[in-house]
Each structure stands twice: as C-alpha cells, then as structure tokens.
Amino acid sequence: MQADLAHALQCHQAGDLAGAEAAYLAVLARGENADVFCNLGLIAKARGRLDEAEAWLLQATRLAPAAALPAYNLGSLYWRAGRLADALPLLELAAAQPNMTGAQLNLGNVYLALGRDAEGWPLYDQRPERLNSQTRKLSFPEWQGEPLAGKRLLIWPEQGYGDQILAARFIPHLAAAQTTLVVQHELVRLFDGLSARVVTRAGDISVADHDYWILPMSLPRWAPPVANGAYLSGRPMRSGGVGIAWKGNALPDPGRSLPAEFAAELLALPGAISLHPEDTGARDFQATADLIAGLDLVISIDTSVAHLAGALGKPTFVLLQHHSADWRWGDSPAWYASVETLRQPAPGDWRGLIDAVTRRVQARTA
Asked: How does pLDDT run across 3-16, given as a tens digit for each residue?
C-alpha cells in the first residue's frame, strides 16, 4: 500500500492527474484514507468535475473531521461556488490550526463577502502579495493605523489595476504630511489629483524619506471609512452611448469573460462602443475615463473597467458568473453607489444574463 501511495503522490506532483487518480483509487481499494480522499477531491476539482470533488472531500472530512487540510479544501471549494454558509465553519476550523495561512486568507474573503469587515480585513492581510512584498525589506515599518500627522507614507502597488482603483478612494482622506503613491504608468494620470505625489514604478524610486509603507488593499483596514460616491474624474469625449467591456485576463478567473457571440450582441446595442484600449486607442486609464465620462451607461464583466466606471460615478452593470462570491461585487455593491451587479441565472448561463441586460438597456432608453 505504501508503494502505491508513493507512486500516486509522485504522479500527482508531476502533474500526471490521470495516473495519480488511478493510483489513488488503487490505494482506496485496500482501505479508506482521508489524505487520499482529499487528493482525489483536488484532482477532480482541477479537472472541472466539481460535484465529484465535493463528494471526495466530504469523504475526507467524514474520516478526519478535525483535520485542517480536508476542511480547508472543502471550505475553499464551497467559497468559490458561492456557498458561503457551507464554507464558513470549515474554513474557521482550518484557519484556527497552525500554519494555515491559505485558510486564513480564504476565511477573510468569506467574512468580507458576508459583510463582517472587522473580522475579514485582518485575515485578508494574509494574502501572498502582502506577505511576499518587497516592501517588507524596507528599513521603515508597515503602517498599521498609527497617527499620520507629520508623517510620510509610501503606498506601493499590488494586485491588479482594479484593486488599485478601488483602494484609491482612501488616499485623499489620509492625514499624512506627505503621501507617495507608486503605480504603473497606466494609472499615473488617473491618480494625479488624489492629494498624493504620484510616481511610476518604472526606474529608480527613492523610498528613504518615508516613515511608513502600506499596500493599497490594506488601506480599507486602517484608513478612515469614506463614502461610496465618485472620487475620480474624466473629461467627456462624447455625449451618450453605452460602453462595453467583455473580456479580461484569463487569471485569476478564466470564466469571467463573455463568449464572443454574446459580446457581439452587446456591441450591437444602439450607441454601444468597445472600451478596450485596442479598440479605442486609449493610452492609459485616464483616456478611458475621459471616454466613459460622456457615456450614459457602462456594461462590464468583473475587470478594471468596472472599477473605473464605479469610481467615476457612472451608471454601470457588472456581469457576474452565477457562483461569484467576490466581496468586491456583492448583490448590492458597497464600494460604488452607481454600480449594479447582474448574475447568470444559472451556472454558465450567459444567454439568460445577456437577455436580461438587453431588456434593462431597452427599458432605460424607452
């Protein structure tokens, strides 16, 4: 049995999922094993067989109800499926055990999606982008809510453009004597009016003259709360119309982009234009903001354009997958007053969602 298990693990680690699955099943033929159940669940999940993954992971938690890894993996599966109530006790069990940073992060995501911010933000700080940030090597400390009067704060970039746009709302309300905001060049002009010295990440950046550093997505934990109205601006380049953003990077979620045929239907709406830079010629986010500023409505998948439209206060429909449980986009988004989220009526049902969006657009123009 040990030889079979070693072979299964070797196949799994080498990425041979079919071979690992067969070897794990051979191990199970000789007796139940919680780790094997758990690994079969991970293989089924990786191969897109989510119902089967749940069944295997339920077997693992039945056999080892107090173990951290089965609880973590099943809880994470439920979280990704939008089953927050099912995910919560499993991730709480896993996160309470030593060296379970991933469980703590996922539990933080669940808390935030449930509106339990006071519990969620400390755990969200366990994200790899913060734990592995090069800022942790700086000679001055991370800002953790200390008074900023007379102090100099460095804000270093992390994650995607959308996350940085979301967090930018806090910057004008920081009471630091000097705030330096480091961003990619695509965001420099957009953030230029945020009461901060905005510099590009490219080239040499002097960080010696600061007292604290922080990453943008830690600002919600420590900065004063702010209203969810518009905080960025654009100069209208047109009058009326509907802006469409239908595709995003494959990571972290390859399923969020619209299939081409549904994107074409949205682009066929009266007055519809693409908001993708390759179609508009926009050289940065300020150019896209100027375009959005003159529109009547933006329709976007979960991507940076949705955050930009919300930050501009533009009426926006954000199109989500049925199971999406991202705290950034609740059913009534707390981050942007002008944004409304619309979900697939069933998993994978873009057809039903596009039909609903079309009816909403037609009702607005009737």
From this structure: 677 777 888 888 88
